[in-house]
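Final report, closing paragraph on structural work. Over the funding period we assembled a curated collection of sequence-structure pairs, and we close with a single example.
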Amino acid sequence: MWDGFLAWVEGIPDVVVYAALGAGAAVENVVPAVPADTFVVLGGFLAAVGDLQARWVFLATWLGNVASALAMYHVGRTHGRAFFTEGWGRRLLNPHQMERLALFFGRWGTAAVFLTRFLPGLRAVVPVFAGVSRQPPASVVLPLATASALWYGALVWAGTMAGHNLDRVLDALGSVNSWLLLGALAVGAAAARWWWRTRHHG
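Its predicted structure, as stored:
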């Protein structure tokens, strides 16, 4: 299965492959359904069996993902308040909830940004709300970049260790992400409960 794919990739300039991997890792923060993890593991695999270098795979995917996450944080910081104070955005968060959100991020924002980088779905949402609550860049950039570096470093390493058993590594990644998704759903359920309680009792 992978032989034909590898032969096709070998005909593409390395810099284009690095750029494509970085773009793939970046998309997740805009479209959470696109899994950045798969691009990272694939890049590690290509470094193991092809001409790519693992350090450049890591750098391309890490920079792409972190840059797009910070771009969404910037959008939330510059336009989020206006969105939630008028029109149907006000139906999502009322002023009382905005105050509570800012208090939460002011106290737990650094930990929330760091931990949710490991949780599918939430890793794309939290930077936006960190921006909406006007968290300073210093409390967002460092935990976001550090957590992403740890996670992507592990994924690139897993890809390089795959050899020709990429399917097995992807299956293992799917199992790990299933458990992480359960964690994300638990956090999401707690957030939904918070939203309902503050919405109707604020």
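The chain has one domain: 2-201. The CA atoms of residues 32 and 121 lie 6 Å apart. We thank the funder for supporting this effort.
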